[in-house]
Amino acid sequence: QVRLVESGGGSVQAGGSLRLSCAASGITFSSYTMAWYRQAPGKQRELVARIASGGSTNYSDSVKGRFTISRDNPKSTVYLQMGSLKPEDTAAYFCSVPLRGTWGQGTQVTVSS
Q: How many CB atoms lie within 10 A of CB 5?
């Protein structure tokens, strides 16, 4: 059974930074593309960043240049380093294994102005 556990969310002022972590179990982590999504109240869930098994990355335009996704295969963990945070980044952030349709429980990020 695939399990994803996110951590690292919290409250921060605009311009600040946070690092999210997602620990995976039940899969051969290194073989899978991993992704971070977010969902703000009243809005649809949206892709934030994705990292392929080989390490290539892509980002939504709204976070490009501010966020960095990375992975540590021996630790079966994917990270999202978020910088220059804005109030519009406020959302619940979810880790996902897109190919498996698996989601974590989410971690809340709140950015105040």
A: 14
In Å, what is the CA distance from 18 to each residue of 13, 93, 104, 108? 10, 12, 18, 11
72-95-22 Cα angle (round to 5)? 40
Q: In b/e form, how buried is each residue of 60-70, taking b as 16+ CB within 10 angstroms?
A: eeebeeebbbe
pLDDT band at 16 (very low <50, low <70, confident <90, very high): very high
Task: Supply 16's token pair.
Answer: 């600040």
**Tokens encoding 73:** 């295969």
- Token pair for 6: 């996110």
Q: What is the pLDDT of residues 57-72, one digit of tens each?
A: 999 999 999 999 999 9
Q: Residues 6 or more apart from 12 whose CB is under 8 A from it?
A: 18, 85, 109, 110, 111, 112
